[in-house]
TrEMBL record:
Keyword Manganese listed: no
First and last residue of the signal peptide: none
Protein name: Gas vesicle protein
GO biological process: gas vesicle organization
Keyword annotations of the record: Gas vesicle
InterPro entries associated with the record: GvpL/GvpF
């Protein structure tokens, strides 16, 4: 029977699994597959697992329960192995790398930071600070029929927006890095200017959260979304 693999943990992890529910329409009990110094948290499945809310929640709850008791290497949702021997072989072959990763992630959690900027406020800022943008905009508003003006203004504003948002995002990351052990920057999407994950040691959590709050209060026109603590998916 195939196995759904949730996480890799150290063999001495408490692994309190009794209260957890696995994935699937008829979830099997969670159990451990042992190999040397490592264990994999798995459950038996007999069908394809889809990314439904219930299963996504079950997968996440397993990570959070394990994370509460020790270090965990969380698998991305949907990782399936054909059988126990395949999982044992993978643990044995990757034992050194997995143990190194467990040590690297010990005593830390992932925090995810996204930010978006009020575009209308940014445009007003550009028109107020860029003499060239203001000149082109004034000519258009005054009825200048030169067909090149809208294109020139659009190109100028696009460059200004890109440069300013990149500089702002870089500044925000630099403000948070002192509290993180590692970080991973991803391309922003859906209108965001920042999409970054940070691996924050437990002893820096308070200072990190204070820095988050300070940024949210001090940076005008920016909407922050902070998520965490999370299992360290981005750093496995």
């Amino acid at each position: 029977m195939a196995l759904y693999v949730y996480s890799i943990i150290a063999a001495d992890h408490p692994a309190r699994l009794d209260t957890l529910t696995g994935v699937g329409a008829e979830p099997s009990a969670l159990r451990l597959v042992h190999a040397g110094s490592l264990s994999a948290v798995v459950s038996d499945i007999d069908h394809e697992v889809r990314a439904k809310r219930r299963d996504l929640t079950a997968h996440q709850e397993v990570q959070e329960q394990l994370m509460a008791d020790g270090t965990v290497l969380p698998m991305q949702f949907g990782y399936i192995a054909p059988d126990d021997p395949t999982v044992k072989e993978a643990l044995q072959q990757g034992e050194g790398a997995y143990l190194d990763a467990l040590e690297r992630l010990k005593g830390a959690a992932e925090y995810h930071v996204r930010a978006s900027q009020d575009e209308e406020e940014l445009l007003r800022e550009i028109l107020g600070e860029s003499a060239e943008a203001r000149r082109l905009n004034d000519r258009i508003k005054a009825g200048d029929a030169d067909p090149r003006l809208p294109l020139q203004l659009g190109e100028l504003i696009a460059v200004e927006v890109r440069d300013r948002q990149e500089a702002l995002a870089a500044g925000l990351v630099q403000a948070l890095l002192p509290f993180a052990r590692e970080h991973a920057i991803r391309p922003p999407a859906d209108g965001d200017i920042l999409n970054v994950s940070l691996l924050v040691p437990d002893d820096q959590k308070g200072r990190f959260l204070d820095a988050e709050g300070s940024l949210a209060r001090q940076v005008n026109g920016v909407d922050f979304r902070f998520t965490g603590p999370l299992p360290p998916y981005s750093f496995v």
